[in-house]
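Make up an example, fold above all:
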Amino acid sequence: MASRRTPKNRGSREKYSVLLPTYNERENLPLIVWLLVKYFGETGYNYEIIVIDDGSPDGTLEVAEQLQKIYGQDKILLRPRASKLGLGTAYIHGVKHATGNFVFIMDADLSHHPKFIPEFIEKQKEGDYDLVSGTRYGGNGGVYGWDLRRKLIRYRLISAVLTSSCLLVTSRGANFLSQVLLRPGASDLTGSFRLYKKKVLENLVERCVSKGYVFQMELIIRARQLNYTIGEVPISFVDRVYGESKLGGSEILSFTKGLLTLFATT
């Protein structure tokens, strides 16, 4: 397990690009950026943070501009878009601007703690993995802080997919069903805290057809099809600190359609 006592002076050829898609994250963005700077700084890895804001009406982009002034244009890159175009396309847009040879994808709402980043990096080095995925369902990983509303949304996602067979299962159960049907070689298909070799991510996004929340699942499935190696790091997923979940009715419908398409085409 990596620690903050890891020696500095890393190899100059290694650079990590962090993709942060944002929509109405003005409260969370300064915190997540500060934590990223802290953990990358303590471990000595070269990095950049790419903020991909989708026209947030709450002033997220203006906050990002202030953060760029604080930390520098070489560390905070702003690659905004005019409107909310979907998570999958945000990653596609972001990776085009990444200058690192490794790419982290993660949420900007503090659900993913940057303290795990050194563990991702050490895991990748350990097996020269093509991608390393954070897992809530392996080792000491877990989910914390979900309120009743969030649990109900999760239940609606699952039940919408499984209505035809009248199954009532937890998120862990739905994940298990996906394992049986898709055999992805990873324990957490819908997680969005991952580390990729940049060339691997570029290759995967070219093949993916999903644009919404199912995009994360398709990335793993395509990786398995292309025989990419997958490592895992147990993580603690914590519900957002500020703001509301953006997983509403339209996203649930999109997720369900995308998941069924994935089942049928892989």
